[in-house]
Amino acid sequence: MHPAGSAAGTPRQRKWPSKRRIPVSHLGMADPHQLFDDTSSAQSQGYGAQRGPSGLGYPTASASPQAAFLADPVSNMAMAYGSSLAAQGKELVDKNIDRFIPVTKLKYYFAVDTLYVGKKLGLLFFPYLHQDWEVQYQQDTPVAPRFDVNAPDLYIPAMAFITYVLVAGLALGTQDRFSPDLLGLQASSALAWLTLEVLAILLSLYLVTVNTDLTTIDLVAFLGYKYVGMIGGILMGLLFGKIGYYLVLGWCCMSIFVFMIRTLRLKILAEAAAEGVPVRGARNQLRMYLTMAVAAAQPLLMYWLTFHLVR
């Protein structure tokens, strides 16, 4: 407290603070990039404590119930035991999920960006201009799809399948034939054909004894690219009738045939060359026929799943 005379005397000179940088340790902040102070522990620092009778707002020395609970060793032991059980349960669930559903592998197939999606769609519609079809590897592992347009992905097939079902519902609605049962039948039939394709190819690869790095997820990705052309054919059929449908679908069928030939050739025939199998050998001929059959089945299924949607 200053005397009254000094307060009424000479006016105080206002001192402006200097612009000196204060170290982070002086500010009491653990993170220099932290925008706000951490007030989560305010309960134990005085906000939850009882106020003193003086009314000045200072907390009394008595601890809050929360602090007393946390200070109890039995409670701390129970909390530690519960945390360990939760961690063990999470680890067990993750192991079982990875055993049946390869979540880590699925993350690779969805590692895409907008640039990759645009390039991949252009490759599906115009595969004739593409020259390098080799998949890039880094330390014996393929790079993520967003870094290599030749890598298979599941984002485009999944989105294309959903869009195909929606476009099919639109086509049925324009013809006054829409019903939830019919739309569900359309989606289930497309999934059934895809499942049959995958099983038939896996059985054929086993019978022909092809040692390839082509996985089941790769097959689902490659076989799911045909839905992109099916969407284009249906939309053109809705806009321009049968002529637009056949023109666009025909172009997409030829494109997917070339795309599958050039992609599967590196997956199936290249492994045969690496094994030293003669190019004109009987087993290599079977592999070539298998590649041609898989590629030829795509246009047939594209027509079978779309011709009844355009009238």
Automatic annotation (TrEMBL):
It comes from the Eukaryota. It is found in: Endoplasmic reticulum membrane; Golgi apparatus membrane. GO terms for cellular component: COPII-coated ER to Golgi transport vesicle; endoplasmic reticulum membrane; endoplasmic reticulum-Golgi intermediate compartment; Golgi membrane. Residues 37-47 have a biased composition (Polar residues). InterPro entries: Yif1_fam. The keyword ATP-binding does not apply. It is a multi-pass membrane protein. Residues 33-57 are annotated as: Disordered. GO terms for biological process: endoplasmic reticulum to Golgi vesicle-mediated transport; protein transport. This is Protein YIF1. It comes from Myotis myotis.
